[in-house]
Amino acid sequence: MNNNIDSLDKLVSLIPIIKSAIPADLSIAICDLERFVAYFPGDTINLNIKEGQPLHKEEPLFLALRDNRALRSDVPASFYGYEFTGTATPLHDEAGHVIGGIAVQIRRQSELKAIAEQIAASLSQANEQISSISNGSQSLAGFSQQLLVQSHQAGKDVENSTEVLSIIKRVADQTNLLGLNAAIEAAHAGEKGRGFEVVAKEIRRFSKETVASTQDINETMLQIKDVTNQMAISIEKIAAIGQEQADSVQHTSTFIEEIKTMSEKLTEFANKL
């Protein structure tokens, strides 16, 4: 298919209208068979082509004119500092002879693609870290629950110990009463009961010491019970906070996954530009 035009000058006069009518940032170059006759740079793409600049033998326009066929190529960022897609199309006169060519360059949104890919990579790393934090929060919540159960059990053990101490105190009281009765009976027996009276006194002294010790132990156990109760309250708060953190981290992870999905769609969109 030939691209017939009246003249290169008429085409050059139409380029500003064409550029303003196309909603994209592009640059357009017009050449005859030997050199560039006009160049219209874009806002963000400028190849610094000068009017009258000769065509290079490796120039896409030169190859398009030589082979009389349209060419298209993607130019990497290593050449001009940014990536763009270029076309080179031969132009013909009314008789079908090649009289020149037109080259159009449109910048590819490689920066947008790079940003989207960087966002996706950062989100992946963030999601991995949040997953680790989430696992840690879940473990913390689990350990807190275990501590809570153990603290409740400790409270029950203290109560059981208090009951045992109460039994010991009752036994000691009874022993003291028995020792008192034995002392009375020993006094009634006179000289014959003196040895038994000594034993009765020792029994009473031992029972009194036992009662005093059980009272001290009971007070200590009550203090331990108060501490375990306070620990249980604190652990309950820690467990609640840990669970809230785990839930919050999970919500954040879900939100990051949604952003990651959107960044992947953005990358797909950038690839199409």
Automatic annotation (TrEMBL):
Alphabetical keyword list: Transducer
InterPro entries: MCPsignal_dom
GO terms of biological process kind: signal transduction
Lineage: superkingdom: Bacteria
Keyword Cell membrane: no
Keyword Transport: no
PANTHER family xref list: LYSOZYME-LIKE PROTEIN-RELATED, METHYL-ACCEPTING CHEMOTAXIS PROTEIN MCPB
Record's protein name: Transcriptional regulator of acetoin/glycerol metabolism
